[in-house]
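Help needed: design a sequence for this.
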C-alpha cells in the first residue's frame, strides 16, 4: 500500500520508519529543502496549499494523511473525491479553531477552562471582568507549542496584549492553576475498533513539551481521560491517532485541546509500548486491526530542544532519536526515551539524563 503524508517533519519521519515493517511506501509533501522525513520516502516539494502539489501527491497514493494540524482545510477538501483522507477533515476543522474545539468538548459534556471569544479590545475587557485575571489570550487559529498566546497578569496589560495578537479572532481563557498536565492518546480504525494508550503525564516550559512520563499512576484520572477521549473519537467518526491534552485539578480534568495526529507526548510508545502510536496511526488509516497499546515498561521521554547532547548515546535503556534537523533556539531536534522497571527508577533515570544534559556542552551539528 502507498501512503501519502502532508508534512515531512519528525512526525512524518517516525510514521515512515514505523511503516517499514508493514511493507508500506511513503510519499511526502513539504516545501522545506531537507525535511526530516526525506529518509523515509520521496518528498514532493510544494507549499502545503498548492493544488498542483496536493493533486500530484493524491495521484501517487492509496490513502492520504497529515502530520500537523495547520494543513489548509480548503486545499485538501478538493481531494476528498479522489483519495481517502484520514483523519477526517471535520476533525481537522475543529482542531484548527480553539473556539470550535471548546464548543465540541462542551457538546460532549467534557469540562473546559472558562473562556470568552474575543474580537475587540472591549470583548477582552469584558472577558477580564467575567473570567478574572490572570487570563491567557490566544489566537483562535494557527497557534502551537505556546506560540501566539500571551498571559495577561492584570488589567493594565490588556491593550498591549490585544494589540500584539489581534490580527485574527482571539479567545481569552481562564489561567488554570493546575496540579499537573496529562494527555490521552488513542486510535480508531474505519471498522470502529478503538485502542487507547496508558495515560501520560507531561511537563511544559514556556508552552513547549519538555518531559513525558507513562503510565500515569492515577487510576481515576486515567479512567476519566479514556472516557472523554473515547467520546471524542466516536463523535468525530475518527480514523487515525488522536491526542487529547488535559489540565488536572484535584480529581477533575479540564480539556485544553486535541491534536488530530500522532503526538509528541506519545513518542515513548516507540520503545515503551507493544505497538507505537505511529504504527497504530498507519494501521487505523489502512483499516488494519489495531496493535496492542499496552506499556511494556515504565517510560520517560525528554525532548531535545535547541541543541543535541554530545555524548549521550543509545544503550539498552536510553533511546536517543535525532531528527536530523538544523539546530535553532527553541526547535525540537530529537528526544530521548528511557525505559525502567518502576516509576521510581524511571524518574531517577530522567533526573540523571537531565543532569547530564545540563552538565554537557551540547554540540551543534553543522550543515555539512
Ligand atoms: P497550548 O498551546 O494551548 O497547548 O498551550 C501550551 C501550554 O501552555 C499548555 O500545555 C499549558 O502548559 C500552558 N497553558 C495553556 N493554556 C493554559 C491555561 N488556560 N491555563 C494554564 N496553562 C495554560
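Sure. Designed sequence:
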Amino acid at each position: 500500500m502507498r501512503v501519502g503524508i502532508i508534512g515531512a517533519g519528525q512526525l512524518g519521519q517516525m510514521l515512515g520508519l514505523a511503516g517499514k515493517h508493514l511493507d508500506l511506501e511513503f510519499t511526502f509533501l513539504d516545501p522545506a529543502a531537507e525535511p526530516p522525513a526525506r529518509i523515509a520516502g520521496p518528498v514532493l516539494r510544494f507549499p502545503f496549499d498548492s493544488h498542483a502539489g496536493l493533486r500530484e501527491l493524491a495521484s501517487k497514493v492509496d490513502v492520504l494523511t497529515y502530520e500537523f494540524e495547520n494543513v489548509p482545510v480548503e486545499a485538501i477538501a478538493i481531494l476528498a473525491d479522489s483519495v481517502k483522507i484520514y483523519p477526517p477533515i471535520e476533525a481537522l476543522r475543529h482542531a484548527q479553531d480553539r473556539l470550535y474545539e471548546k464548543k465540541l468538548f462542551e457538546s460532549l459534556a467534557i469540562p473546559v477552562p472558562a473562556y470568552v471569544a474575543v474580537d475587540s479590545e472591549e470583548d477582552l475587557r469584558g472577558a477580564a471582568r467575567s473570567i478574572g485575571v490572570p487570563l491567557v489570550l490566544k489566537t483562535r487559529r494557527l497557534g502551537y507549542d505556546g506560540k501566539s498566546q500571551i498571559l495577561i497578569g492584570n488589567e493594565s496589560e490588556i491593550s498591549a496584549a490585544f494589540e500584539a495578537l489581534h490580527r485574527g479572532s482571539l479567545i481569552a481563557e481562564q489561567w488554570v492553576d493546575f496540579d499537573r498536565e496529562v494527555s490521552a492518546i488513542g486510535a480508531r480504525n474505519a471498522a470502529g475498533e478503538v485502542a487507547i494508550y496508558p495515560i501520560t503525564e507531561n511537563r511544559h516550559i514556556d508552552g513547549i513539551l519538555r518531559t513525558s512520563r507513562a503510565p500515569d499512576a492515577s487510576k481515576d484520572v486515567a479512567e476519566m481521560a479514556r472516557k472523554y477521549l473515547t467520546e471524542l473519537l466516536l463523535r468525530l467518526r475518527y480514523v487515525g491517532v488522536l491526542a487529547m491534552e488535559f489540565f488536572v485539578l484535584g480529581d477533575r480534568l479540564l480539556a485544553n485541546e486535541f491534536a488530530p495526529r500522532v503526538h509528541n507526548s506519545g513518542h515513548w510508545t516507540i520503545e515503551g509500548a507493544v505497538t507505537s502510536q505511529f504504527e497504530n496511526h498507519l494501521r487505523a488509516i489502512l483499516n488494519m486491526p489495531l496493535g496492542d497499546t499496552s506499556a511494556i515498561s515504565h517510560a520517560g521521554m525528554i525532548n531535545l530542544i535547541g541543541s543535541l547532547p554530545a555524548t549521550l548515546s543509545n544503550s539498552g535503556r536510553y533511546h536517543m532519536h535525532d531528527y536530523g534537523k538544523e539546530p535553532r533556539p527553541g526547535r525540537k531536534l530529537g528526544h530521548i526515551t528511557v525505559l525502567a522497571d518502576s516509576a521510581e527508577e524511571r524518574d531517577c533515570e530522567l533526573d540523571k539524563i537531565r543532569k547530564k544534559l545540563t552538565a554537557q556542552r551540547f554540540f551543534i551539528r553543522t550543515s555539512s
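Confidence is low (pLDDT under 50) at residues 363-368.
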